[in-house]
Every structure is written in C-alpha cells, then in structure tokens.
Amino acid sequence: MNELARLPDLSIDQDYDGDSFTPIYTTTVTVSGGVSSHGRATGRARSADGGLDLDLRLPGELGGDGQGTNPEQLFAAGFAACYHGALSLVARQAALDPSVISVRTTVAFGRDPDDGGYLLRVNLVVDWPHVDPAVAAPLMDRAGSLCPYVKMAGQGTPTNITLHH
Description:
The chain is an alpha+beta fold. The protein has helices spanning 71-93, 133-146, 148-155, and strands at residues 29-32, 43-47, 53-56, 102-111, 118-127. Helix 1 crosses helix 2.
C-alpha cells in the first residue's frame, strides 16, 4: 500500500478564469446541537458529503470537558494543510522534495482589546530539513501568496451571513 496518491491537476497558473472569483471546490459543514450558552460551539459538525462527522467540545482550558475537537483545532488543521499544500507545490516547481516538509500551526483564541470580543492569532512553523534558509524563504513567501488561509488571515474574507427559516 505504498502507492503514491495522484496529484490534482492544479498549478499556480492554471484554473484561473478571469477577473472574478471562480470557485473550483465548495464544501458545506453544518454544526447543530450542543450547548452554546457560553458563546462557544459545541454539538456535532457534519459535512454535506459525510467525510467529516465529529463532536465539538469546549476545551478544558475554557471550562469544558475537552473530550472532543474544538473549532480552533479544526481551523489549525485546515490552515496547516492549506499552507503545506501550497509550499509543496512551489517546492516541486523548484525541483525540491516536498515529502520532508511539515507545517505546525498554532491557533490562539483570546480577547480582542479593540472591541472586547474574540480574536484568533495564528503562528506557522515550517520544518524543512536539509534546505538552505536562503532557498526556503522565497518559496515560503510564494506559498503564503498562494495559500487562501494566509490571504484570509491577512486580508480578510468576504463573508455573507443570512437567516434561513
């Protein structure tokens, strides 16, 4: 079972279709149930295709039982996976082996001093053994310009919130 997974036919230059946003993949996840009186998500998260189906729990550090996944863990996983994919792409294009790259993402949840609400802070650490930092740095910058999670964190993401009843 050591077969390599087939890589999708995506690149930096392909799949672009003009001056407007053109989705090439869409997913939907619904969170329902649980206790939300504390302002934190608990309950069940399910993707429309069934690939994701898990319990959400409040972390122990926030007074919960910590016996499930929390939104910050999901965000960190998505962020790490996205940046890892972008960096792997640019590494391959530079004729470097991406299989040794790992990305550790730390997401901190805390209070926003500007409005008293909540805020996330993200820290990415790339482990890329045996690659000269002078070679890695421009590739990491390029990966950051390709990764939509990095763009979202730096530029914001258009968000539509509607009520369906």
